[in-house]
Design a protein that fits this description.
alpha+beta; Aldehyde Ferredoxin Oxidoreductase,  A, domain 1; Aldehyde Ferredoxin Oxidoreductase Protein, subunit A, domain 2; Aldehyde Ferredoxin Oxidoreductase Protein, subunit A, domain 3; 3 domains; 6-stranded mixed β-sheet; 24 helices
Length: 605
């Protein structure tokens, strides 16, 4: 009998031949890699040959739930997209909330494993035990919002849809997948992989409910988790302001990306803060499936040049990268570009970075008006930003180059622009300048998918005194390593990483739902196993210590303003942290897991 919490089945889809097959979920492998990130990483590692081009039909795109997806557990909406990233060439897992993942699991499948390339634009329609390949020529070229609306009219108003926009169709390397209108598998180019497969959308509808190994114990574990969430000090703040609550404190800490990470202090921060957003454009709150927090902020802009009829957002990362990083100080204008990116299928983090990089190139006269179609591509110019978003999505003019990401763009432009191309392994930075939070420097450099804040977020601990002294490397390596292992498990269960739960809550939910009996050391060791597996994937692709690094701006230019003025991550500081991190991980000096560590983790290669 299968472990509780799982459906016990995978759906394998061959787009080339329009064939499907159903396989049983391997209980032993599920116990070792859990679900979501971990199980997807295992499938990808075993199935995709080294050096496979991410746009090759042999690359997989995997939609994975976890054993807690769709259960009574709080915020059990999450699901994961796993593939080889076209932006970095590395392992990629991108996590999504909303409702699609719950509906996908209710069709009776733990994972959708999709290979091949359809001859013509295609949609997958999965409803209980049936899978149909639907022609999508009429949807090709449409935005994500129109695509979802039309599929609901065509199939059933209650279906859940995940789709790509024009950016994914044109293989923009950071194109995303949009689900439930405003939820994204945002980072690393998941939408471009779907586009390369001629897969426009997936629609799902099912009726199966999860079963638990120990129903009463699971209900009690759920109650304890919900009690913890409701009593946590930050829950009312997140409920009122959502992730934009972080704009003001991050700016005060001199970490807010401003004008392509040239500084961490934005003079217009008050105009784009969570408080301002709440007062000016929020019309109601909303929540993912079974979430007690309700951090969605439904917004509307009724006046001005750039109006928004309906949007969930913007989130903090969008405000930081499409806002302050581009010199935009209007929350209304940021909301508009957020909506535009959602519809076109663009990751707002990478898009904001790409445009900010181009703005700096323009202001430094490394590119001119002829290169940008006569646009005054300067910081703070919202008209230029809107035009560049569209140009990137449709690969027009300079947008065709920016669609490749800042790493490739800087290599093409040259002239010293590589110094301020802000990325790790080709993935653009999220919304925290690590020069004022040294732990984030290590977290970005060692993240398995490129620059990422979610694999180990040290900001709160550093700016609020949990890691002291603030401008130090002390304790950062262990802190980052421990969070990465713990988060690898959270992203494999799959539960929302915003939930303020402790390891004990996650363990109790997992064990009572599935029938596993993991002690805390086994639970965290499983997270370490998953983290090492994704490292093995990247090492197999040729990535080692040389790729665990930071841009020259971050390591050579001190912050010029604010409380962190004068701070930077020198090479000596960074190398000290990285060496300690490798030692703690049981990796060699090049960042390769040792044979002893792999044996300890029961990983074979």
């Amino acid at each position: 009998m299968m472990l509780g919490g799982y459906t016990g089945r995978f759906l394998k889809v061959d787009l080339t031949n329009e064939k499907t097959s159903v396989e049983k979920t391997n209980e032993k492998i599920a116990g070792k890699f859990i679900g979501g990130k971990g199980l997807g990483a295992k499938i990808l590692y075993d199935s995709v040959n080294p050096n496979t081009d991410p746009f090759n039909p042999e690359n997989l795109v995997i939609f994975a739930s976890g054993p807690l997806t769709g259960t009574l557990a709080p915020s059990s909406a999450r699901w994961t997209v796993i593939t080889k990233s076209p932006l970095t060439g590395a392992f990629l897992d991108s996590h999504v909330g909303g409702f699609f993942g719950v509906e996908m699991k209710s069709t009776g499948f733990d994972c959708l494993v999709i290979s091949g390339k359809a001859v013509n634009p295609t949609c997958l329609w999965i409803h209980n035990d049936s899978t149909d390949f639907i022609e999508a020529e009429d949807l090709w070229g449409k935005g994500c919002l129109e695509t979802e609306t039309k599929l609901k009219k065509r199939l059933d108003k209650n279906v859940k849809v995940a789709s790509i926009g024009p950016a994914g169709e044109r293989l923009v390397r950071y194109a995303c997948i949009t689900a439930d209108l405003y939820r994204q598998a945002g980072r690393g180019g998941t939408g471009a992989v779907m586009g390369a497969k001629n897969l426009k959308a997936i629609a799902v509808q099912g009726e199966r409910k999860p079963e638990y190994a120990h129903p009463q114990e699971f209900r009690e574990a759920t109650k304890r988790a919900i009690k913890r969430i409701k009593e946590h000090y930050f829950t009312p703040i997140r409920r009122k302001h959502g992730t934009p609550a972080w704009v003001a404190p991050v700016n005060e800490a001199a970490l807010l990306p401003t004008r392509n990470f040239s500084t961490g202090v934005f003079e217009g921060a008050n105009s784009i803060s969570g408080e301002t957003m709440r007062n000016k454009i929020v019309v109601k709150d909303g929540a993912c499936y079974n979430c007690p927090v309700a951090c969605w902020k439904h917004t509307r802009v009724d006046s001005g040049k750039y109006r928004v009829n309906d949007l969930d957002g913007p989130e903090y990362e969008t405000i930081a990268l499409m806002g302050s990083n581009c010199g935009i100080d209007s929350i209304e204008e940021i909301a508009y570009t957020n909506l535009l990116c959602d519809d076109l299928g663009l990751d707002t983090i990478s898009t904001g970075n790409a445009i900010a990089f181009a703005m700096e190139c323009f202001e430094k006269k490394l590119i001119g008006k002829d290169d940008v179609g006569g646009v005054e591509l300067r910081f703070g110019n919202i008209d230029a930003q809107v035009e560049m978003v569209q140009n990137i999505a449709y690969r027009e003019g300079l947008g065709d180059l920016l669609a490749e990401g800042v790493k490739r763009t800087a290599e093409k432009i040259g002239k010293g622009s590589e110094r301020f191309a802000i990325h790790v392994k080709g993935m653009e930075f999220p919304g925290y300048d690590p020069r004022g939070a040294f732990g984030m420097a290590l977290a970005y450099a060692t993240s398995d998918r490129g620059a990422c804040h979610e694999r180990a977020w040290t900001v709160n601990a550093e700016i609020r005194g949990r890691l002291e002294p603030r401008y130090s490397t002390k304790g950062r390596a262990k802190f980052v390593k421990d969070i990465q292992d713990e988060r690898a498990m959270c992203f494999s269960l799959v539960l929302c990483d915003f939930m303020p739960l402790k390891v004990k809550h996650f363990m109790d939910l997992l064990n009572s739902a599935t029938g596993l009996n993991l002690a805390e050391d086994e639970y965290l060791k499983t997270g370490e196993r998953i983290w090492n597996l994704t490292r093995l994937f990247n090492v197999r692709e040729g990535m080692t210590r040389k790729d665990d690094t930071l841009p020259a701006r971050i390591m050579e230019e001190p912050l010029p303003d604010g409380v962190a003025k004068g701070q930077m991550i020198t090479k000596n500081r960074f190398d000290r942290m990285l060496n300690e991190y490798y030692t703690l991980r049981g990796w060699d000096e090049n960042g390769v897991p040792t044979r002893e560590k792999l044996k300890e983790l029961d990983l074979t290669t």
